[in-house]
Amino acid sequence: MAHVYDRIALIGLGLIASSMAHAIRKFDLAGSIAGYARSSETRETVREIGFCDEVCETAPEVVRGADLVVLCTPVGVMGDVVDEIGPCLEPGATLSEVGSVKMAVIEAVVPRLPSGVHFVPTHPVAGTEMSGPSSGFAELFEGRWCLFTPLPGTSPEAVERLRSLWRRMGALIDDMDPERHDMVLAVTSHVPHLIAYTMVGVADDLRRVSNAEVVQYSAAGFRDFTRIAASDPTMWRDVFMNNQKATLEILGRFSEELSVLQRAIRGGDGELLHEHFSRTRSIRRGIIEAGQDTGLPDFGRSHGIED
Amino acid sequence: MAHVYDRIALIGLGLIASSMAHAIRKFDLAGSIAGYARSSETRETVREIGFCDEVCETAPEVVRGADLVVLCTPVGVMGDVVDEIGPCLEPGATLSEVGSVKMAVIEAVVPRLPSGVHFVPTHPVAGTEMSGPSSGFAELFEGRWCLFTPLPGTSPEAVERLRSLWRRMGALIDDMDPERHDMVLAVTSHVPHLIAYTMVGVADDLRRVSNAEVVQYSAAGFRDFTRIAASDPTMWRDVFMNNQKATLEILGRFSEELSVLQRAIRGGDGELLHEHFSRTRSIRRGIIEAGQDTGLPDFGRSHGIED
Questions:
Q1: Do B293 and A301 touch (CB under 8 A)?
Q2: What is the pTM of this model?
Q3: Nearest C-alpha of chain B: how many angstroms from A307?
């Protein structure tokens, strides 16, 4: 099959960009890949790993000659990056981004967009708790959703071409309204991360329970929380700074619900707890049936029992 | 090596008991295994799987002739079970239990204990989100901690013999004060479970975010929460009813900490968030170094990338 793009430029070379580069090469989806990262250390690592054909020293440089430019930086700096690269974007090129929030990114990018450039926001709902250029792998997007939040008036051909790239990297594609995207992701990802960060912080603060004990006896539960809470701090700071409204709404509901369970514990209302715990089981079944996790039990180190 | 016990009786035949039975057989640690579960359906399943040499119809029956009896029921019924089996326990036998809380269990069991029986409370800190007699496997305890909270005055020989059983099932052994146990486990396990249950409940309630979407786009974060929240409702109800004090203390601290982060989001204090998120990363490193989880990234279905 023919390449989807001639030259793809990746800006910000962490988990998502490096995984894209590996997948683009594996499935032969572009003539060449150019990469730029702000940190010289990251650029050096990428040169060593070699998943880009060219690693550039500046952002304007990397977008020259690219028919697809993908912003893979934390969402908080995307507006600034567009200011920087805008004059060098090729006419007719597609500018995309892979941020975890959509409304704030669209508001930041659209006013800075040069005419003649197609802007297509996307969100590959895939990741691990790892970050940085060494953490990527070609299979990250396989069977995962890549959500598109296309804007009215965008060239359907440009959107379809980008869909084709993601499809050929193994992703499932769906379209979503940007505002709805931010609410759904607040529930499924942003607030769960904040809660995990909070709980791990509580454990860290507790002088009565030394770290050594917390770490040593971290059963399932806390162990899963620490995995979530090990994610990239800059990325997550920017997520919360840029999805404030939906995050705060869901946090409010969470606190209400937690108060109900807390009161049930204090009052010894076992029936309420049992009813609540039974209800949550069915959502888990739905996720396994939807293919977004394995039904295999997780008991820590060896992840996945083979029979 | 010689058997550790002649006959081990297991009461309550779920994940822990079935895993113990598989491990006891695998490592040849007892002459025979007898089992009892309150539900006739469970007893029938256990007969089919065959991990007990004998499945009894009553609790008093199963303890006859056993030199080790292990209570593997939800913690809330352990007192009642001891009332039932007390008169039939063999003099010199050891009674143990594997509950997730210790203070309440000790308070319930000790006054009902016939003289001449050694009571040794334990807590194997191991599990999966699965439950029931079909969920057990011999490797569940390998490299996991089994916490002993022995009471003053208990025969050291009886305690050492039980330690030997757990060691030979692959567990690491540590002693802990019962009150401290309940506080450490509130942090590492009980409150994280309650929070996961709460978050999954919030998602379920939200009419604006249909279940289908939540399920379909469940990225890491929510996906881990649903796994935790799929655990056995009866077991967890009993944990919270019986570790009220420590759970409520930790929940209080959690709510305080969450309010701080919530206020930082509302006020746009990215620095506070970044500092907090950076701190939690180091705990994760500690857990990996302590061997309680794999350092491999978790990206859902295929759990563990073999590269």
A1: yes
A2: 0.84
A3: 10
